[in-house]
Amino acid sequence: MEKLADIGVFGGSGFYKFLDNIKEVKVETPYGMPSDSLFIGEVGSHKVAFMPRHGRSHTILPHLINYRANVWAMKEVGCKRVISPCAAGSLQKHVAPGDFVICDQFVDWTDGRKTTFFEGPIVTHPSAAETYCPELRKIAVDTAKELGIKVHESGTVVVINGPRFSTKAESKFFTNQGWEVINMTAFPEAYLVKEMDMCPLNISLITDYDAGLVGDVPPVSHHEVIQVFDKNLDNLKKLLFTMIEKIPAENNSCECSKTKSSSQL
Question: Active-site residue among 197, 208, 230, 234?
């Protein structure tokens, strides 16, 4: 397939529906059908491919997303960088609803997901030590500060399987580990992006305090999550589109494009 985009974004229709000259592209993959078509438009000097990870009508639950097909589709149309905004919960009091966290680490607490493209016959052991692209993280942090958005420059996201939220005991355990963010989609999405030699970036929009935060917050509800997310969607759009305009044409300062070549033993 011809190169149609250089940056990919996993996110809902709110990110692209107001852009002009959107082109819808359907991509078939060796891993089955992606969550939806790719919607390709221009942001600054970049061609950007948007995909709603839950489908355009938000009908695909986190544990049922075909992450490999979604990421493969981004690679197929030519993307070199992939940005993954997501709604997330806070595990620490200093990370408040409405804040943004540019995560630099993840903890996988999922079960049963297809989490790698490497299934033999060549044996590979890719490193996930530094999954998220440092170049993109710096651009995101600097842009958020310029826009006056409260941003945490780093953080660890623990990814649970869903669709249920955590019990108080589970949530308190995560809090006690010192992790800041909890979410249901950040893994294996970003890691698969890394496996495909593209630069991954996580932008966590905090929508709530998780249920067991020191045992003194009410249980989270899906309705409340959506309310806070919608309220802060404008900030997320500003951050996303402003930072995309600042991304250089070539990614020369990171090692993200060398995952495959350096992983074979």
Answer: 208
